[in-house]
Write a structure and sequence with these properties.
about 450 residues; alpha/beta; FAD/NAD(P)-binding domain; Enolase-like, domain 1; 3 domains; 7-stranded mixed β-sheet; flavoprotein; FAD/NAD-bd_sf; FAD/NAD-linked_Rdtase_dimer_sf
């Protein structure tokens, strides 16, 4: 049995792991990056980038099919070549993965280990069958895995997760999407716009992470006008028959529906990928789900020299947060036991549907008592109406006494850009008055932000 010594071991070479590695090396410490699966981050290989490539194709198809209101008519039937769609997706996806591989290949060979790792103690890892790594501290950055309820596991290859969608050579005819979170909504709408018969089911009333009931109702109306989306609907049975899946589901009122699909796409959430790490061999205190107690400010597992970075910690499973986690966990692992809490960043999340969904700062559900709410409806907002993107609502939140801007939730045009502006305002601790002193060009969609802020300012 061979043993390697290092200052910091990093398990997982995704976004968080690679960022942690760079943080450790920048601190002048030794690091070993351990990966048991394929190189290339989840974002590049099966997440952010391929999903946006599918969405881009879907948006192009939608734009062509809905150009008539502008007086632009397409003679004849608009054709969607599923094989060409998937071919471009894979080529561009592989290009993004290639950029990641270049960074991996540039690392010193002695800093990389291939193999699955598990803990033997707080400071020892077993990698494969014949190698041990002894490290003063460890960063675990193993990511997350799709949650698949047991009732679907008998469906075999007719059950897919988002990872599998991007390996298709062609688009299927019929897909059931289970889950109305960001992944389910993004992929469900994209497939529908590309001509796939899609049903999207949500077991609860949740929709894209929206907590503001006014914004959620606006989003629901916009999506249901375009594709079959049902909330508060439970799947009762899913049975494979040949290459089809027969599914029976019911609304909360008890109305049952039976339909056949080529695939069931499971998008009911993701779980931290801790299985196989054998954290029980460490000093970590685990709950009944196997999750260790974690200080979210430092990412340190309580009572150990172990740090959790990225999706595996279950805090905020977003790519930009994984990068932030990696920097913090890597820096703290490098200087352990002198760990430091993170500097807080304003929460920001975006769902790339059409209309887009965005959240910045405090959620509606967490607003303090007496907070004021400003609003704008994009239906008659100038630039949005010009572009026929006039769907959705923005609601901004502020403290009633000081006018300090707290956050916002929105569904609407340009939400990916507006969300950033609002998150920056939260982090800068601006008041709505100060925000209204900022320049607003005309005519732009961002003028809708000014409308909402003015509404809030009148209530302060």
């Amino acid at each position: 049995m061979n043993t390697l010594e290092t200052d910091v071991a990093i398990v997982g070479a995704g976004t968080a792991g690679m960022t942690a590695y760079r943080a450790v090396k920048s601190a002048g410490r030794r690091a070993i990056l351990i990966e048991g699966g394929p190189y290339g981050t989840m974002c590049a290989r099966v997440g952010c980038m391929p999903s946006k490539l599918l969405i881009a194709a879907a948006d192009a198809a939608h734009a062509v099919q809905h150009s008539a209101p502008f007086g632009v008519r397409i003679d004849g039937k608009v054709g969607i070549d599923g094989r060409q769609v998937m071919d471009r997706l894979k080529r561009e996806r592989d290009r993004f993965v290639g950029f990641v591989l270049e960074k991996i290949n540039a690392m010193p060979a002695e800093d990389k280990l291939r193999g699955h790792a598990h803990f033997l103690s707080d400071t020892q890892l077993q990698v494969g069958d014949n190698l041990r790594v002894r490290a003063a501290s460890t960063v675990v950055a193993t990511g997350s895995a799709p949650f698949v309820p047991s009732m679907y596991k008998s469906l075999g290859d007719r059950l897919v997760v988002n990872d599998d969608v991007f390996s298709w050579d062609d688009l299927p005819r019929r897909v059931l999407v289970v889950g109305t979170g960001p992944i389910g909504l993004e992929l469900g709408q994209a497939l529908a716009r590309l001509g796939v018969q899609v049903h999207v089911l949500g077991r609860s009333g949740g929709l894209g992470g929206i907590t503001d009931p006014v914004v959620r109702a606006s989003a629901l109306g916009a999506f249901q006008a375009e594709f079959d989306l049902r909330l508060n609907t439970e799947v009762l049975e899913a049975v494979r028959k040949g290459d089809e899946v027969h599914v029976r589901f019911a609304s909360k009122e008890g109305e049952e529906t039976t339909a056949c699909y080529d695939y069931v796409l499971m998008a009911a959430g993701r779980l931290p990928e801790l299985e196989g790490l054998q954290l029980g061999n460490t000093s970590a205190k685990l709950d009944d789900k196997g999750m260790p107690r974690l200080d979210v400010a430092t990412l340190q597992v309580e009572g150990t020299p172990i740090f959790l970075a990225g999706d595996v910690n279950g805090v905020t499973p977003l790519q930009h947060e994984a990068a932030n986690d990696g920097r913090l966990a890597g820096a703290n692992a490098a200087r352990f036991p002198d760990v430091q809490p993170r500097k807080p960043r304003a929460p920001l999340s975006i769902v790339f549907t059409d209309p887009q969904i965005a959240h910045a700062g405090v959620f509606f559900r967490d607003l303090p008592k007496g907070a004021v709410i400003g609003k704008v409806d994009f239906e008659n907002q100038g630039r949005s109406r010009i572009k026929l993107r006039n769907r959705g609502k923005l609601r901004v939140y502020a403290q009633a006494d000081s006018g300090r801007f707290l956050g916002a939730e929105m569904v609407g045009p340009a939400a990916e850009h507006i969300g950033h502006l609002l998150a920056w305002a939260v982090q800068a601790e601006l008041t709505v008055g100060q925000m209204l002193e900022m320049p607003f060009y005309h005519p732009v969609i961002e003028e809708g932000v000014r409308t909402a802020l003015r509404d809030a300012a009148r209530q302060v």
